[in-house]
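Worked example

This section walks through a single chain of length 196. The input is the sequence exactly as stored; nothing has been trimmed or padded.
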Amino acid sequence: MNKRIEKMAENRAKLIVAAREAFADKGYSAASMDDITSAVGLTRGALYHNFGDKRGLLAAVVDQIDSEMALYAQNVGAQAADEWEGLLAEGTAYIEKALEPEIQRIVLLDGPAVLGDPSQWPSQNSCLQTTKQTVEGLISRGTLKNIDSEAAARLLNGAALNAALWVAASPTPKDVLPHAIEAFQALASGLLKKPV
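Given that input, the structure is written out below as tokens.
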């Protein structure tokens, strides 16, 4: 990689780190582009060059955090006793992340308000493909009903995402969390060939 490309990647990474901190601390609207760029010794030009505008920078931060959430949830799911329990654990872990202040503010509150429908975000699309593969495997092994795998994956992911959005927006997230998880697991269990 040449020096110019390395420098651009370095600047991009610095801006994401600074923006992540500013958005978590102050929220998207109150975080100024000048504060973000000066925190890492860069100019607005560097921000515009790398992200187009402040909204583009938020999209990059949301993508990073949402991808981290998905990876965390997948790791939790991978520790479960079987693939079905793993799928439930993954969704539950994603919902539980809604209690983390940085995730609440950036991904679940400011993200949808500024970037629109979270189900259309690239990070969510990647998560959908992983869930679809898991669902296909569970259908082929007879664990789940023989239904359309994409529909089931979209509904499972949508339920987990909406549960997390509900928890984050609630005035009492810790009180709402167990209800959101219980409902998510009950809905998901409806896909089982032989319900528990």
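What to look for: Residues 63-189 form a domain with the Tetracycline Repressor; domain 2 fold (CATH 1.10.357.10).
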